[in-house]
Structure formats: C-alpha cells, structure tokens
Design goal:
- The strands form 2 sheets. A 7-stranded mixed beta sheet has the order 1-4-3-2-6-5-7.
- Strand 8 and strand 9 form a beta hairpin.
- Helix 5 packs across helix 6.
- The protein starts with a helix and ends with a strand.
- The longest helix is centred in the middle third of the chain and has 37 residues.
- The model has no long low-confidence stretch (mean pLDDT 78).
- Among the domains are: 33 residues; 102 residues, no CATH class; 34 residues, no CATH class.
- The chain contains 8 helices and 9 strands.
- By secondary structure, the chain is an alpha+beta fold.
Length: 317
C-alpha cells in the first residue's frame, strides 16, 4: 500500500506537533507518558526552577511543574508532580535542598507516619534545609567581605592617583606628561625636517638608488659569470701548483739540486767568501800598482816585469 504525498505530509506534521507538545510539557516538568499526581507547597523566597527534580530518600519520583509568586500570601507557590504509585501521608513535608556545588536546588518529600494518605491536589507544608540557608548567608558574607576589601583597594588606588596627579615635582604625572609632550613635539619637528630633507634631495636619492640598482645588477651578472666559469678546474690547478711549490721548497730545505746545495753547502759559501776576499785584494793591488798589470810599450820597447813584491826584474842577457 503506497501512501500519497499529501498523507505523508499530514503524518509528518502531526508527528511534529505531538513531539512539540511532549517536549514542551517535559520541559515544564510534566511527562505525558507517565501517570502522576500534582501537589502544591509554598516558600518564603524563590529558589527553584521548573523541571527541577522531586525526590524521596535521594530517588527521583517527580518534577517541579510551575513556580509562581502568590500575590495574596506574598509567598512563592510551587506545584509539582509525584508518581501515582507513591503512597505518603498528607502530614509529610516538602524540603528545599541544594543538589550540589554545581547543581541547582530541588524538592525532597520527607515522609511522616501520622496523618492520612495524601491525595492529588493537597497542599503540603514546606521547610528549607539549614545547610542551604547557612551556605547562602556565608556566601553573602564572603561576597560582602571581598567587596569591602576590593572597595578599600580601589579607594587606596584612587588616593594614590590623586596624589600623583597633584604632585608638581619631577616625579609627578604633570611633569611626566609635559616631558612626554615635549618629546612628541621634538619627534614631530624631526619628522618635518626629515620630510624636507627628503624633498630637497629627492633627485640625489633617486640617483643613489639607481646606482645601487645598477651595482646590484652588475654583481648579479658577475655572480652568473663566476657560476659559468670552471672554478673547480682552476682551483684544482692552483692546488697542483701549490703542491709543486711545496715540493720545491722541501727540496731546497733538504739541500737537493744546485739551489739546494747553494743554500745548504757550507763549502761553497766558504769558497765564495775566499774568492771575494782575493778579488778584493786584487782590486786593491791594481789600485796601488797599476803598472804591474798595465804596461804600454812605445816604439817596440819591451815591457817591464815585476816580482810578487813589486820589484822590477831586469832581463839578464
């Protein structure tokens, strides 16, 4: 059997209405699926909300339905529901208590052994848990003392601010504000001067920036050229050359080869030193006795001969 679109829509709307009615009443503390009886009580002040639980010996057996102010009695009238299976006396009391530190307040039925069986619509006497009153009073007392300390601190702070404002010394706020104002004026004048300097040297700054741009582009080109160059091969050749130079220097240090012997052989040094002295003596003798070494003969005259001491040796014939 197929249902038409109109029937499906109607069923959906009816279901929505039923769920709305059920949810609305549940939020008010009434469960339409449960059969319960309604009772009433009142308190000197309001500490409850609708849908808060009603318990007996810690077990939930109902909910608060309505909380309203009674203008005739000047009290808060509370209506609540209880499971119809519960049997209790009409002399029982309804106690207002706190569920916990984070929870709200709730109602608890305190059964009594006297009296008749309670009937739906009965008005039951109420009481407030002592701990709840003490908690409320202590919280108010703590709030009052804390507020008193806060007000005293605020008063001290205002007095300090007032004295600071009235202080005309260097540490006073007036002087500080005046110095701050002067500093801000100085920064303002400095900014004006900087703006004027920038305007006057606009062309120069443009030229500098252009030159800097050109230089950066040249550096970029140079960097690219260096990247293209075979630096690895050049460094390898330089390393090889340095290795050869190190070998040459090591050979010189060890006295290898002609240069090494020249640097390390003492005999060569001594021979060179002796030759230098003999050359010096020869030049000295040439200076003192030039005729001994230079002899010019005119008309075929025979040159004179001298001995080692510079005496002339005559030819014996």
């Amino acid at each position: 059997m197929k249902l038409s679109l109109e029937v499906k829509t109607a069923l959906l709307v009816i279901s929505g209405i039923i769920l709305f009615i059920f949810g609305y009443n549940y939020l008010k503390g009434e469960n339409l699926l449960e059969v319960s009886d309604k009772y009433y009580t009142s308190f000197d002040f309001n500490g409850l909300k609708p849908s808060e639980p009603v318990t007996i010996m810690g077990n939930p057996i109902g909910r608060i339905v309505n909380v309203a102010y009674d203008f005739e009695s000047g009290k808060t009238k509370v209506s609540f529901t209880v499971d119809n299976k519960l049997v209790f006396s009409n002399k029982s009391k309804v106690r207002l208590y706190q569920q916990g530190l984070m929870g709200g307040n709730a109602l608890a039925i305190i059964p009594s052994e006297i009296g008749e069986q309670a009937k739906p619509g009965d008005f039951l006497e109420s009481e407030v848990e002592k701990d709840l009153i003490q908690s409320l009073s202590s919280n108010f007392s703590g709030l009052s003392s804390g507020l008193d300390v806060t007000l005293k601190s605020a008063d001290s702070l205002l007095i300090g601010l007032n004295s600071l404002v009235k202080d005309d010394s260097e540490k006073g706020i007036k002087n500080v504000i005046a110095e701050l104002n002067a500093t801000l004026k100085g920064y303002k004048n400095l900014s004006y001067n900087i703006n004027g300097l920038v305007k006057k040297n606009d062309e120069s700054l443009t030229t500098i920036l252009t030159n800097f741009k050109t230089t950066s582009e040249s550096l970029a080109t140079l960097t690219k050229d260096l990247e293209k160059a075979n630096l690895k091969e050049t460094i390898a050749k330089l390393d090889s050359a340095l290795t050869k130079v190190n070998g040459l220097m090591a050979g010189l240090e060890n006295g290898d080869g002609s240069m090494g012997k020249l640097l390390k052989d003492d005999k060569l040094y001594n021979n060179l030193e002796g030759a230098s002295k003999q050359m010096e003596q020869l030049l000295q003798d040439l200076k003192l006795n030039p005729k001994r070494y230079v002899n010019i003969s005119v008309f075929g005259r025979k040159a004179k001969v001298y001995d080692a001491e510079g005496n002339e040796i005559k030819d014996k014939k």
